[in-house]
Design a protein that fits this description.
heterodimer; A: 89 residues; mainly alpha; two-stranded antiparallel ribbon; 4 helices; 2 strands; 63% helix; 4% strand; B: 221 residues; 2 domains; 12 helices
C-alpha cells in the first residue's frame, strides 16, 4: 500500500519542478537515516565507545566506499573490521 | 531483464545476513517455518518484518503493530512520490508489480533519468526487483533452516551488513555539496530523534535532510 499509493495515476496530484527536486534527495536521506542508528544504537541505547564494533565497521565501510565505490569491497572490508573489533572486545 | 538481475546481484547478496537473521529470528520467537516464510513472501520488507516478529512475540496489541509498520514503511511514500512522474503513466499491471517490488534497494537503482521510460527499462526493473525478491526469500529459508538446527544466531551482529550495504549505496551518491549537506543533516537528526525516542525518527530525519539539501541547492543556483 505505502509503496503503491502515489504510483496511482487517478490520484489527483501534480508535482511541480521544486517538489521533484526536493524528492531527488529522498534516496540518500532515507538510507542515511536508517544506517546511522544501526551504527550508534545497541538495544535502544546510544553507544559511543571504542568497544562499539558497529562504529569501527561503519568507519571502515565509509572509507572503503569513498575510495573504491564498490559494494563488495565496502561490505567486505567493513565486515572484516566489524568482526575483528567485536572479537577483540 | 537479465541485466537488471545482474546489476542487482551485489545487493541481493548483501541482504543475505539480514534474510538469515530474519528467518532464524522467526523460529527463535516461536513462529512455524511456514509463517516465517510467508512474512518474506507476502510482506517483503526488512525492518517491518523484524519489528513485527518482535512485537507479536511480546503479544503487543495489533493496532500498535499496524501503526509501527506504517511508521517504518512511510518512507515508501517518498519513493512513490519520487517515481510518480515516471511510473504513473504505465499500465496497472506494471504499477502494482513494480510497486510491490519497490524496496530501498530497487529504489536506489531507479535514479537514472530514463528509468522506467521504455519497455526495456521496465523489464530491467522487473529483473532487478524480481531477482531481489527471490534472493530475499531464499535467504529467509536458509535462516529458518539454521534457526531450527543451530543455537541463537540473532546476536551475531548480522544487522551490520545492512548498515554496510546502505553506506555502499549512499557514499558514491555524494557528488555535490547539496547531497553532502542532505546526508550530514539526515545523519545528525536521525541520531537526535532516535536518542529522544521519537517514533517517526526515520521519516522526520530524512525529511529534514532532504529540506536542507534542497535549501542549499536553491541558495547556490
Amino acid at each position: 500500500m505505502t509503496r503503491y499509493l502515489f504510483l496511482e495515476e487517478k490520484l489527483p496530484l501534480r508535482l511541480g519542478p521544486n517538489i521533484s527536486q526536493l524528492l531527488s534527495f529522498s534516496g540518500p536521506a532515507v538510507l542515511t537515516a536508517i544506517f546511522i542508528p544501526i551504527l550508534f544504537f545497541n538495544n535502544n541505547e546510544i553507544d559511543i565507545s571504542v568497544s562499539n564494533a558497529y562504529l569501527w565497521g561503519g568507519v571502515g565501510s565509509i572509507i572503503t566506499a569513498y575510495k573504491t565505490k564498490n559494494i563488495y569491497w565496502t561490505i567486505g572490508f567493513g565486515g572484516i573490521v566489524f568482526i575483528g573489533v567485536s572479537s577483540y572486545f | 531483464m537479465i541485466k537488471g538481475a545482474t546489476d542487482m546481484l551485489p545487493l541481493s547478496l548483501a541482504v543475505l545476513p539480514w534474510g538469515v537473521l530474519f528467518g532464524s529470528l522467526a523460529i527463535q520467537r516461536g513462529f512455524s517455518w511456514i509463517e516465517g516464510q510467508l512474512f518474506s513472501a507476502v510482506i517483503f520488507a526488512g525492518a517491518v518484518q523484524i519489528v513485527t516478529i518482535e512485537l507479536m512475540a511480546e503479544n503487543t496489541r495489533y493496532i500498535t503493530i499496524l501503526f509501527m509498520a506504517l511508521v517504518i514503511s512511510s518512507r515508501h511514500f517518498l519513493y512513490g512520490l519520487t517515481l510518480r512522474e515516471k511510473l504513473s503513466k504505465q499500465s496497472l499491471k506494471w504499477r502494482i508489480g513494480l510497486g510491490f517490488l519497490l524496496t530501498d534497494e530497487l529504489f536506489s537503482l531507479s535514479g537514472h533519468r530514463k528509468s522506467y521510460a521504455s519497455k526495456y527499462r521496465l523489464y530491467y526493473a522487473l529483473g532487478a526487483g524480481g531477482s531481489f525478491y527471490l534472493a530475499w526469500n531464499i535467504w529467509t529459508a536458509i535462516g529458518i533452516i539454521a534457526g531450527v538446527s543451530l543455537p541463537d544466531l540473532t546476536n551475531l551482529g548480522l544487522d551490520f551488513a545492512v548498515a554496510a550495504t546502505f553506506i555502499a549505496l549512499v557514499i558514491p551518491e555524494i557528488r555535490t555539496v547539496p547531497v553532502l549537506v542532505c546526508v550530514l543533516v539526515s545523519a545528525i537528526s536521525s541520531l537526535l530523534f532516535s536518542f529522544y525516542g521519537f517514533e517517526l525518527s526515520l521519516v522526520a530525519a530524512a525529511s529534514v535532510g532532504m529540506l536542507c539539501g534542497y535549501g542549499v541547492q536553491r541558495v547556490r543556483s
